[in-house]
Design goal:
The structure is a homotetramer. By secondary structure, chain A is α+β, with helices and mostly antiparallel strands. In chain A, strands 12-11-10-13 form a four-stranded mixed sheet. Chain A has a three-stranded antiparallel sheet with strand order 2-6-14, with helices on one face. In chain A, α1 packs antiparallel against α6, α2 packs parallel to α6 and α3 runs antiparallel to α6. The longest helix of chain A has 34 residues. At the A-D interface, β5, α8 and β10 of A face β5, α8 and β10 of D.
């Protein structure tokens, strides 16, 4: 579910930030969204492959709507909306703001056109830049600027989250096309633009031990973070072991060859129903051609790399694989403690693949929804979803931190999700 | 269901035709398909509003595929396909030719791009024009040309059928957009391009009487027609009466105001379930704003015209309305006999709205499927569909003839369908 | 769909009938319903295997409700209903009489108990017998009795129709039980009670020819019949041929062995989707055990009899088989003309298996719904269903006549339906 | 989901127990299952109201199958099964033992008959009693008996869990019947058999405070418990407050009257979809007649008691109500700590209503599945379900303990579930 990107906008704490840095951050973020669409046609950014994914054009418009709704309207007195219809068309799910166009039909909104959406972005950018320049005025009371800066930071982070979704959504769309379209064309002479090339090969995993104890969990400094990363709190953990490496494609092939998908004893009850009713027998983007595995990626269809970390895997599959190995998934607290430990043995922790934890997504002890419109729905998605940690190669690097909590339904596979195993000590 | 357009290609009889006329016909037909897309963006022609409708880009490619598959490949010895993948992507449902890309996912095929589809059309056009020019060679044996001309005529008629679907499909797509996009912008200074402007107002209907007798039904001359229009056969009819006019919007408003949609006694059992489960309370494109009816059309949202003939109505609604009036729908044989009678009282018979008949779509007595690949599936759609007659304002005029049989499921509403009532005498 | 049994009650013409005969008919009919349940437990008559089938207890109650509603209440001035709740519980679909308990949940009505339903039947029987005895009074004006007699005849015929459904519904229920329960236990020393034993073996079929002409179709004498069997009307038929025999199990095995279920060219488009989505590869009650075919029947699981006529077949399957044989199904008019011809070559025409025709169920020309409550919904089911003719071994013998029209959806298989093929001449 | 009852059998620790006590326990448990069916007809115990519920006859057979499969077969050398078909018919979901009859179709198994199922129970009882008598033999090695006693205790507890489901399933079935059947007829002169009469009225709730600390969670003595109640482990809790009383019907009426079901801001995202798509506007068994609330119960339809604790509520509803009150649900650890505290202010903690916690059902730290057949599926249901604590009036009293974890999907309403609110301190 892409909803988490929305959720996050409502829960954050803004740090003190230099207005010049903020303007740079804004400009860079906004440009990058357009850059992602550079090689794509109007058709590519219009289509919607499933209800959980959105057209890229919609992402472009919705992220602009977020600046308009949560920054420009509240902080510019006489702000004129670009188009009053957009409140209905590009509101994702904020019931307090009004009704929303049905999510599953976003691909039918061929109007406003791409051109109009670009105009919309320009309109927002101009007003945002003007606002950001005003913030530089030294004569202003710094304290009075804080709410505005906080909102801007939020909306920037929100757009960055959508950038990851833009990549996973276009990949999902292209995967339905039998001619295997490419977002990125290989170019040996240049540094690759394809984030998938940043994946580091897995090697033989070692078990890394952690002691029992009362640990501190959650965000702990002044830097930007989302509300669901806090409040910081104590959590008691028994001793445990964590694998130093992510599970590789070769590892998972053994599971397949051993009949993993045919053995009900490895699967959760719901998972077993799902893989049978949808005839799931392999990871989402794997294809077998004449007994050789290939994998569909942002550069098209390629032979499967055995040592690359396994990706686009559901919680169901991750859990079944762990059972087959006689291990288990880590809890999100275990993962965070390990990540903070900075032990040198631990590899591929950040910015490689989101790592499924066994933790159901729920509020931390003492979590309080923010007051006002933005915080009104805290916890709206805290049900039946599972936490992932670590960030992926598609995640904007500014988002990478030990406390970051991503969450998806147990059957979701279109995100850059992988497996790291744990054990009791 | 748009399937009928496919069906028709397999069943036709080609007349003798002058090759120059054929070339003109070909060129005009091909151009008109592009003309229909003139004011549309790549996004507009990419989106698919439901499984029964197709993206316009797909129509453009599929009609070209039909020329390639049924004319160029069989009649040009060394013909090189434009792209061998297209046999899978743009085959609608010919199992004998091979597997087909799932109908409901046509909107996800953002590649080949619009540009590539236009290239595909050009490729086909060049080879078709060359073939058509060869046919003019007087030294050729006319008889030997017949199969080729027959196929060309078929494929031309096939593309014309798709042109009607392009209009109904884009209208259906736009109807999901709350900002009511327009295919045609009103322009008072020019002749309207909007076929909907060709609808003639209904007036007070009279009952026109027809005598009992053994009538001749079905296609009866050498002009082009589809196989399902024949064979010509005798059919006994008791005397009957037919209304001289189509039911108007005002007529149907009375039905609504009288609680027609709330009275189970007027509806077929399946219809009653359908309108309740989908909460249908009005014709497909009607909208009520502050107690005034509006209608969405190819020129956007307009106040409902009371005297215009009622359109976009299902068989279910047509039948319920007939029950409410104490009348009935005509059989397709009654309609054809009336149409052939050329009685001057009878208005709006042709090229206005498809008129629902009470006849289930089934083969005429003595109907034999054609031999060979093209005829293999005759009757594949002759189940649970109902016949419409007369053609609509969106129907290419060359298709208008008394024997022409269109057919759709009883709940279909996105075609230009209307109501003419009949009675026993 | 069992709806046809309801439909029929509303459309009939009552003949002159001797009151003593009527009393006998009534008594015999009512007893037979109970007899059908004789070997069954309360659990057996409570369960409902699908929405189209009903629990036998519900049939017992509903047929009594029909006498109460359509005879006792209108014709006995001070009639006291047995239980006013029953109008809701046991009304099948008469919207004019009131709301109905949801069809799919009839199996959940464990109360009223079997015992209470038997009391209900007794209550109705006592009052009906008293009414029937009054009708014998010679001093009464015969003409004034006619409406009452007509209704009684209707309700008797209605209960007889439900008796066939009771057999097909219990068979369907038992077929879900892996231990293959038997309604009838074999008993070699007695005449079998199992109607399935009355099936006559098929032999080599001959083609029987019929001349073209204007034929008279529909019910033509004063005997009881349902409204949908009339009005009698003229119908023009071209010459045709009809097989003298029903298709046998051995015939159909050849179709299966030849890959009939895997060949899309033989199937209607909807049929092909259905057999694929539901993985249909054989007739409903066939089971293969170690490469030998067995068939589940009212006496349990038995080896398939090759020469027995093929039964429990859908219109879809019948049509595909006909295509495979290069023949077709007869129209209902052809069937009726053949049946009336009494040609000696024609075998297994009546009381063996319902024979699918290619005719969509629709009103005969000039058909008028009866006035008043009973006739209000004429034609309610005249959509998307196909006509079967001839009656089956499960059909009460009084119902067998050339004009009788049964009708079911094209995918229905739980009735005693079979195949007789036709050809153009 | 009733699956938890199955789950539990696989995970338990058996205490030392006197064989005479065990025989008494066995006999009492087995008799009580039959007692629950005493006033019911064969039809009542045959019907299945939904896939999550089972027919009572199936419960009677399945619990016997559990003794046969997990006790008699492993521990009696020459044990003869009552009927080998039963392994397929009455296996709930143990894939290692073999395939299972589809859960949703259990109501179609009218055979074996009630009588045969009673014979089955008798067969099992005789062999179990004989086995239990052997255990009394003082010459036996106590240690060698332990595995057998452990299994017997498990199977007894398993049957007790099914007894609660028998009550909730029959109540659910009866609720579909518009004539409101009663399991128990009121009898003022006798002690009521209706467990619902044991509900204690709620009064004004007070907030009870608990200190932060490292608490011990999970089962902690030798008495019988299920595996999922352990291992005992440390858990850090911040200070919190718990309401002393369950939420009452009157409390919840205020929520309804305040538009609680219409306010999206109170509901989880999935919950909001659910209550809208299923039009849920009130607790499962509430009915409004002429603006007065009634509640359907085991003694039929009765006026709603304002002070009685609110029951048959989903997690979704519980969570929305908590939001409306500005409070939250307790975690399962908070609930357990409170329950163990034995603070006198705390009322209605045990044996009244299952109390929803905010905790997703997941394994305790260090949890290890048992080895062998019985333990093979540990954790199979540990996904997307939420923990309830405390037991209900329908729960066998032997099951009541602070560590007992029940679990259901967030939308489940047919169990005796209620609400107790918590707050941060």
């Amino acid at each position: 579910m892409a909803q988490h990107t929305e959720d996050s906008i409502k829960r954050s704490v803004a740090p003190a930030i230099d207005p010049n840095i903020l303007l740079n951050l804004y400009t860079h973020t906004r440009n990058y969204s357009l850059q992602l669409c550079q090689s794509l046609s109007e058709a590519d950014i219009q289509a919607q492959s499933m209800s959980d994914a959105s057209p890229l054009k919609w992402h472009l418009a919705h992220t602009s709507w977020a600046f308009e709704t949560f920054v420009l309207k509240p902080f510019i007195a006489d702000y004129q909306e670009f188009d009053t219809d957009y409140d209905y068309l590009f509101n994702s799910y904020y019931n307090a703001i009004g009704k929303q166009y049905p999510r599953a039909q976003r691909g039918l909104l061929t109007r406003p056109s791409y051109h109009q959406v670009l105009d919309y972005r320009l309109h927002v950018d101009q007003r945002m830049q003007s606002l950001l320049n005003q913030l530089k005025d030294d004569s202003l009371n710094k304290a009075s600027l804080k709410p505005c800066i906080e909102r801007i930071l939020l909306a920037v982070n929100h757009e960055q989250q959508h950038q990851e979704l833009m990549l996973t959504d276009i990949k999902h769309l292209f995967s339905f096309n039998p001619i295997n379209p490419k977002l990125y064309v290989d170019n040996n002479n240049e540094v690759s633009a394809n984030c998938e090339d940043k994946l580091i090969d897995s090697q033989q995993a070692a078990s890394v031990c952690f002691q029992e104890g009362l640990y501190c969990i959650g965000h702990r400094d002044e830097a930007f973070h989302f509300d669901n990363e806090g409040p910081q709190h104590q959590y008691y953990l028994a001793s445990f072991k964590l694998d130093s490496m992510l599970v590789s494609n070769a590892d998972y092939s053994e599971f397949i060859d051993d009949g993993g998908y045919q053995n009900p004893l490895l699967w959760l009850s719901e998972a077993w129903q799902k893989i049978n009713s949808e005839q799931i027998q392999k990871p989402l983007y794997w294809q077998k051609h004449q007994s050789t595995w290939f994998e569909f990626g942002l550069s098209g269809l390629k032979p499967l790399k055995p040592n690359a970390p396994l990706k686009h895997i559901s919680f169901f599959e991750a859990n079944a694989y762990a059972n087959w190995k006689g291990k288990r998934l880590p809890t999100e607290q275990e993962w965070e403690v390990a990540a903070r430990s900075q032990k040198p043995e631990l590899k591929q922790m950040f910015n490689q693949l989101w790592q499924w934890t066994s933790s159901s997504y729920s509020p931390y002890p003492g979590f309080k929804p923010a007051h006002g419109a933005i915080g009104e729905y805290n916890g709206k998605f805290m049900l039946n979803q599972y936490v992932l940690r670590g960030g992926s190669v598609a995640t904007p690097s500014g988002h990478i931190r030990p406390s970051y909590r991503n969450f998806f339904y147990a059957d979701a596979r279109w995100q850059y999700s992988g497996i790291r195993l744990a054990e009791d000590n």
